[in-house]
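Here is one record:
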Amino acid sequence: MYGFETWSLTLKEERRLRVFENRMLRRIFVPRRDEVTGEWRKQNNEELNDLYSSPNIFRVIKSRIMRWAWHVARMEERRGVYRVLLGNPEGKRPLGRLRHKWENSIKMYLKVVGFGGMDWIKLAQDRDRRRGFVNAVKNFRVP
């Protein structure tokens, strides 16, 4: 997960992360014997979430992305990181579907948690609201 703060996750990648995490949890929490039939069975996703008390990998990634976004938003505009992540490149884009941009991910996370119509760069300047938002993203239940 090195450098995942700058990832721009698509729905396909989100699903793959959830599948991977559940597969690893099923290996950690071995199959259980059914009390009624006496047969061994794999645990379903709800049972795994109940056994594993830490937030899932997707929520951790989203909260870290948001922490990095707040950090970048407070940087000066002449800094290289700010220009790369928030700037608009010159020239033409290649043909085809538009790429999923990092800033669009940030706006989507804001909308899901309820901070939809706000300018996220201005929101980054308010420390208390920013921390509340990062905690909301971390604790938000993903179906």
The chain is about 55% helix and 5% strand. The helical segments are 11-28, 45-51, 57-73, 80-86, 102-113, 120-123, 127-139. Residues 7-87+99-139 form one domain.
